[in-house]
Structures
1.
Amino acid sequence: MNRKLGYFGLSVVCIVTAALMLSVGNSPASGDGIVALANGSGQIHVGSPPELRTFTFTAQTDSSGTTRGQQEIFNRSAGRRSHAELDCLSVSGNVATMGGVVTQIDPSTPPFFVVGNFILFQVIDNGHGQSGTPDEISLTFFFSTGSSNPGCTGFGTFANIPVEHGNVTVH
């Protein structure tokens, strides 16, 4: 088990490093064509009894409307790790909704947890500070391969799980 956690920890470090490299100098205010940006990492507890899940993601949309990004999640109780390439990002104030396609998943359990499925999740950036309101994230919703791409708009606000030991940034 320590080997799995070590591999996952290394994966998180690599993805967070990539996210930071994407965001350095690419803020919306820098004038280089990035019009929306969301990134973050942390952990959440879900269910009863609470299950630990860790996540990291980054997404950005440029002035031509192209969105690029990645998401990595690890459900520790199920032992399931997934990776997705993000291709949509919708930002409204401090709320970002993102979606894409699963590119890796282990273990795969059809019909929802397979490569090629669409995903959708949302985050809320509630600012910084230990005494402030924690940032929030939704569960990642998986849509079976036969369904249509849900896109990133028209869903309202559905992020409601407090982020623990992490941070979310939305621009």
2.
Amino acid sequence: MKIVITGSLGHISKPLAEELLQNGHTVTVISSNPQKQKEIEALGAAAAIGTLEDVDFLTQTFAGADAVYSMIPPNNYFDHTLDLRAYCHRLAGNYVESLRNSGVRRLVHLSSIGAHLEKDSGIILAHHEVEVKLGTLSAIDITFMRPTSFYYNLYNFVPQIKALGFISSNYGEDDLIPYVSPFDIASAIVEELENSTVHRKIRYVASDERTASETAQILGAALGIPDLQWKLVSDHEALKQLIHIGMNTQIAKDLVEMYAGFHNGKLTEDYVRNRPAQMGNIKLTDFAKEFASAF
């Protein structure tokens, strides 16, 4: 198959490209960074250097492909001019136009846990709206991948652990957190890209499930801080912390609303009803070793 991958050589896209190439597929990787071209080609893939903001570039790159993997690249949450929902809507619109014009018939899109919610999901609401927009592509078979909480998001707590000796947020203690590794997401995407029998599908991907307190215990053991705790604070306190470190105020509010969804269970309710038949291979105890090395 001829497959186009967005996301450059990011956490998911690089192992995804490697696995697809190992399986004998022809892979093109889109990157906005010209300096990535040699690294992409060294993998055995073709590099398409351009931006997701350019519909003509996307249309030309997608043309002739059997399948596309799409995603919304992360943005700078500390940019006070960023309208995150508008950014996501714009890129989704670009995908719709370019996919429709290029004749692609198979799409696997990276969405998120919580994308089933039409409100009260914070920054995840944009993923719901992107799913709706992509869903208008009636002639294209689509799998929406809904990964859970990425292990690497735990790195955001490193400054707090170093400064205060504990983790705190407006979710924590006994709240359930399903985690996922980018490598397990990549393998699941490969399975979906190679599955040609799907018209519309939602697939959750997770590697492990732990409470916040269990997470603190596992990370603490790896760090040599056996009494590390994950404390639950109010929404107000969590928002104050994010604004204090300079985050875009609207994004901070949306993050706090998302975290509240973990605490009250709204964000994970559909995941719990539709858990993956099999968890991924990389567990929190595995990630904790990486976390400790980076700490």
3.
Amino acid sequence: MNYAIVDTNVLVVANQKAPQASPTCVIACIQKLRQIQQEQILVIDDSWRILNEYKKQAYEVGQPGVGDAFLKWVLVNQANRDRCHPIPITPQENSFAEFPNDPALEKFDPSDRKFVAVALTHPEHPAITNAVDRDWYEFQQSLESHGIQIEFLCPEICKP
């Protein structure tokens, strides 16, 4: 099976709500979300932390954007193990027990730690897909040293 984890910014870009995203970046995000829906299994946490973040940035009704349609698809399929894998993660103050205890990651965005915790907990350690969040690039080496893979859909935006 091919698994995926998706940072919320991918939905935002697919909805054309990120002004820094080029048309090429928007197309890459749209294609990735459609690929997940057709060919992959989305990995999320079992306490809806990721889904709730998606819901803050996209419309549950599935319109008008591709990111909105993806959110609706996730909500419809979140209990279908052939489409989504909910993973338990353990919350701690501003982080998760599964997040690496590494001084190099102290300043990593607390709101993105749930994606790392899910990636490390899932047996396949799927890559985290990012569009325009530069933190993933800034912390890439430290994250990779802990087995975290990051898929950059818009590297021209993330890299300085």
